[in-house]
Amino acid sequence: MFGYYFQLGMRSLRRNPVLTALMVIAIGFGVAASMITYSVFRAVSGDPIPEKSAVLFTPQVDSWGPQQNIHGEPPYALNYVDALALLRAHQAKRQTLLYAVWLSAQPTGEQSLPRGADGYAVTADFFPMFDVPFLYGSGWSAAEDDGRAADVVLSEEFNQRQFGGADSVGREVVLGGRAYRVVGVTRHWNPRPRFFAASGSTSGFKDPTDFYIPFSRAVDLKLDTAGNNSCRGNPSFNGYDGWLQSNCVWVTPWVELDNAADVARYRRFLEGYAADQQRAGRFAWAPNVRLRDVMQWLDYRQMVPPESKIALVVALGFFVICMVNTIGLLLAKFMRRAGEIGVRRALGAPRKQIYAQYLVEAASVGAAGGLLGLMLTALGISGVGILFRPQIARLAHLDLSLVGLCLVLAVLATLVAAFYPAWRAAQVQPAWQLKSH
What we know:
This protein is α+β, with helices and mostly antiparallel strands. Helix content is about 50%, strand content about 15%. Helix 1 packs across helix 13, helix 2 (about 15-45) runs antiparallel to helix 11 and helix 12 (about 340-345) packs across helix 16.
């Protein structure tokens, strides 16, 4: 019967090409607008490390006080004194401190001019904590952290530029005028958003990091942060050492906690640490701490660009309008065939067959609209840079999951839209139609 109803539907669609075209266009444009904006929203709001996002936490300690913090929230990062204290306490299975640095890279081979390179100063646990994949070598050890070793881990992209993609472990690279020994090269690794150093709605969507150096080494060399640095009150300090002792926050801590008991224990540790600082006179306020996992942290830092949310809501509203118009067109199309329906009902066709016939016809329209929407989506994704910043726009792409979603959405939405017109068609009274004709 499905094949028979499909044939009837195709004949009906060919009899009314204008109505059919209007419905296909409405569905196609509605689906395309939704899928284009969804492709961007999906890219910027996904879990960047799904296998571990529930066990990775960033601690916050209020070192500013209620007069200086924002809406009662502790600073988004730690000052150097508090960061080092948490690291030395060793209260987590794994822990790392990090901050962004920017150094010039001395050219090798045929390169002639130095170029800037962005990286992070991190501790040894950074690589196993975040499951960083390696192409060559590995990260450094905790002993090398303590020894302020001049080690460096390069990204695959940076290694390609510097050494042509060869195994560079054991070789030297000059960054900021100082030589570092390459101990590892990561495979392509660029989680989106870059959760571990999220400082705003665009910072998490940059190109892959070029290098990683030991945190202790970076501090010894007095490397300034290339990321956010926020101070409160009237900070007065002299030079780099004074900055390290100030209340300026610029260090991001992360800890790995395997279960709820570990999380509760670490939160108690943070509260106890803040209470100790209050008793010591550093803090003149009650303990105020936070411990957020990856997804909570991204939400707190508002990593999903607001324009992507607005565009998605607007596109969904446009899609609803398109489907309302489709309901009207289907109703007009179906009710124009009231005489045909009356004859079929008089010959014994039950209402469920009327429903089936017109829903199959609507599904055919939805499939055609889905194909049009798919083509428009592919075209629209190439132009999303008009609405979004380049680092956001380039994340949108058409993959098999989006293709399937596009077609399924078009068909299902059209079937939902067809229920009322099909119900009206099934209510046609055979006697009235036979008498009037």
